Amino acid sequence: MENLKKLIPIALLALFSSCNNSDDGNYQEIATYPNVTATFGSKIDLNNLYNYANQTVPAYITKNNAVGSTITNAGATLGRVLFYDKNLSSNNTISCASCHLQSNAFGDTAVASIGVNGTTGRHSMRLINNRFGNEGKYFWNERAANLETQSTMPIKDHNEMGYSGANGDQSITDLITKLSAIGYYKELFKFVYGSEEITEARMQNALSQFVRSIQSFDSKYDIGRAQVANDATPFPNFTQQENNGKNIFLTPPVFDATGTRTSGGFGCAGCHAAPEFDIDPNSKNNGIIGTIAGGGIDITNTKAPSLRDLVKADGSLNGPLMHTGVITSLQTAIGHYGTINIAPGNTNLDPRLMPGGVGQKLNVTAPEVNAVIAFLKTLTGTAVYTDPKWSSPF
Hints:
Keywords: Heme, Iron, Metal-binding, Oxidoreductase, Peroxidase, Signal. It is found in: Cell envelope. By secondary structure, the chain is mainly alpha-helical. The chain has two domains: 32-215, Cytochrome Bc1 Complex, Chain D, domain 2 (Orthogonal Bundle), CATH 1.10.760.10; 217-382, Cytochrome c-like domain (Cytochrome Bc1 Complex, Chain D, domain 2, Orthogonal Bundle). Helix content is 30%, strand content 2%. Strands 1-2 form a two-stranded antiparallel ribbon. Helix 10 (240-250) packs across helix 12 (366-377) and helix 11 crosses helix 12. The N and C termini lie far apart (48 Å).
């Protein structure tokens, strides 16, 4: 009996460790995970997890649309596996990462991303810094109330990943049965949640943790912003052109009765406020109302990704812009806002783009455009493109 009493605390400690061996390293021992080790090798070490939970966020970044949601190292690790696993598609050819590539700031260079039964209806949105903003809804038309809901909607889409439960597709219940038979998921779900059970809610929880962890705050802009009191102050590390571009971006325009700018800047910050450069949740559509398919109009697209990492370090775009992918250069993007034409049927145009009820005319000049482009390029970071914690574990 005395020996049994001694063994009970040891057994309880082992049980506690198997359910909580995630983040802080204060547990006594960790179970072996042969399937995880065999599948991922050194890319995933459950004894030494990557830091997702306690990444440095600059003090001037204050917006957060994920209040109440927690990122853990263990949960984001499982999310990383799910994000890159082609087993989540009906024919094992497509993963979340197929349309959101790390090399392109988690966006796609294709106008329409390829799925298992066709292509996406809208251009795939970049995922950089998606939690650092006020807008809590997801997709271009904000049809997902939160990131958790959004995370499995592509999986349940007939064209994208094929587990729609309609059109001859299997359902997400069938996907869960499929994943439950995979050894590394047995181990990972138990590692994170304390049991091998896979549910859609657990998948959503893990995927959203990984996506929320993707952040970029090591840009030239961030180096400068850390040295000044506010964005209106010239940044000491910027060129004169970059500081001019910043001022033009931040300063609202002054219009006459015809909607023509007479002074001021471009007012980009009215919808994309610094320092997060996220989209204002009150924004309506930006005047681009076409569709990838080419027929009809779509005036419901009112969300946009952060303007951070629009381009790579070499200045090339991380894929085309807008929900139609119709914009293929920063110059063209600025030009679009330079002259807004109110298209017939567009009853949802943002009022900030039609002063006095007419489409704005910014009368942009080449030096102004070049300055704003120079400034937008300062928003590009470096680590997010190469950090292994956001890379494929396979």
